[in-house]
């Protein structure tokens, strides 16, 4: 059986590596990769560290508009399908790469497996474009690998065949377990974090990541001003996302002595920092999941989240773009000095095995 995984962003790589490794352990299964170049370099460290090579590496100019990127991704992934002729295609989550890859496969009657199926915010504008993309994929997919019961319920409400829905857990937890295991045997994998950890000198720090498209320049300036305020109480490490808009935020915080603006970390270094952080401030989806599993207080700079489980588990708190609320919550966490209990609401780290077993048994 030939499977083609279509990916292109850092989180897709992180969440599909465990699935690729599990499938490659199945007799008679060949897994090939098409990287669309949507994120040119982010995440390639994890592929290299796990010995996974891309069979197709599509090139991409920087700064391309989403409206121009999407049709190109459909055409380019279609060309790959025309040569590879896979028995099935795997896509992950909610990116332009995932939606375009699914449409290309659908146009060729190639069955689609959707990893991290069923996440919904109920608002097409938040997150944009991801809520729209994941809703596009669902009606086209033959296998729906839902990370949680809530995600599975969302799919059933959309009349997806219950027999096609499999609650597996989120593979981000598989990746977290893999990264921590690899760091234990090869600590040098996380060495990118050494410099900033040395600069911190063992002091507690908050880890902040801001990358969502909905954050406009005013939002980013407000967030920057709030981070400068919070930095009076705790050092902040900010790996800056390569999106051009991140410049607005960096310009506000870059000269603050207690804010360490750094390039995006490779996955191993980031997990090392996440493990060490006192507090997490983020608009990321995956980091809400990872923070919950690690028992970190996560302040979510989004007004809605498809990770309600993180909030229920007491790990995540939605503060949206209300920086007064963010500062109050952050200072409350610092004063309480009590961390949330690590929760396995996003899975037990065996999601990839379940996905591989189901796919291997059904084609
Ligand atoms: C709407 C939404 O929530 N959609 C999500 C979005 O993913 P995201 O929001 O999680 O995206 P990011 O925040 O970019 O990535 C986070 C990952 O990156 C690692 N990391 C971070 C900083 C760094 O310096 N070095 C790193 O290695 C970190 O450990 C983590 O695993 O799209 C995915 C694809 O479809 C979806 O699955 C997912 O629902």
UniProtKB/TrEMBL annotation:
GO MF: UDP-N-acetylglucosamine 2-epimerase activity
Reaction(s) the record says it catalyses: UDP-N-acetyl-alpha-D-glucosamine = UDP-N-acetyl-alpha-D-mannosamine
Major enzyme class: isomerase
Highest taxon above the source species: Bacteria
InterPro entries attached to this UniProt entry: UDP_GlcNAc_Epimerase_2_dom, WecB-like
Domain UDP-N-acetylglucosamine 2-epimerase: 23-359
Pfam families given in the database record: Epimerase_2 (PF02350)
Homology family: Belongs to the UDP-N-acetylglucosamine 2-epimerase family.
Protein name: UDP-N-acetylglucosamine 2-epimerase (non-hydrolyzing)
Source species: Croceicoccus esteveae
Gene behind the chain: wecB
């Amino acid at each position: 059986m030939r499977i083609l995984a279509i990916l292109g962003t850092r989180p897709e790589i992180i969440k599909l590596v465990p699935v690729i490794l599990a499938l490659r352990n199945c007799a008679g299964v060949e897994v090939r990769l098409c990287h669309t170049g949507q994120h040119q370099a982010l995440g390639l460290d994890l592929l290299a560290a796990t010995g996974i090579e891309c069979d197709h590496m599509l090139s991409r100019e920087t700064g391309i508009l989403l409206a121009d990127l999407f049709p190109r991704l459909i055409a380019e992934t279609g060309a790959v399908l025309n040569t590879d002729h896979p028995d099935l295609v795997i896509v992950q989550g909610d990116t332009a790469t995932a939606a375009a890859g699914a449409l290309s496969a659908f146009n060729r009657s190639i069955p689609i497996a959707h990893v991290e199926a069923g996440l919904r915010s109920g608002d097409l504008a938040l997150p944009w474009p991801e809520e729209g993309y994941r809703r596009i994929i669902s009606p086209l997919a033959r296998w729906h690998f839902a990370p949680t019961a809530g995600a599975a319920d969302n799919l059933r409400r959309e009349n997806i065949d219950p027999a096609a829905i499999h609650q597996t857990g989120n593979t981000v937890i598989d990746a977290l377990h893999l990264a921590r295991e690899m760091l234990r045997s090869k600590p040098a994998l996380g060495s990118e974090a050494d410099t900033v950890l040395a600069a911190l000198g063992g002091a507690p720090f908050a880890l902040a990541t801001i990358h969502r498209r909905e954050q406009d320049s005013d939002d980013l300036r407000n967030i920057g001003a709030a981070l400068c305020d919070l930095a009076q109480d705790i050092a902040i490490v900010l790996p800056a996302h390569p999106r051009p808009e991140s410049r607005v935020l960096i310009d506000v915080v870059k000269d603050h002595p207690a804010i360490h603006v750094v390039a995006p970390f490779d996955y191993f270094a980031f997990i090392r920092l996440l493990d060490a952080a006192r507090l997490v401030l983020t608009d990321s989806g995956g980091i809400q999941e990872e923070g919950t599993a690690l028992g970190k207080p996560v302040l979510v700079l989004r007004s809605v989240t498809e990770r309600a489980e993180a909030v229920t588990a007491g790990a995540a708190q939605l503060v949206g773009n209300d920086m007064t609320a963010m500062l109050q919550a952050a200072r409350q966490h610092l004063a309480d000095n009590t961390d949330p209990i690590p929760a396995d609401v996003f899975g037990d780290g065996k999601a990839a095995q379940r996905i591989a077993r189901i796919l291997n048994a059904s084609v």
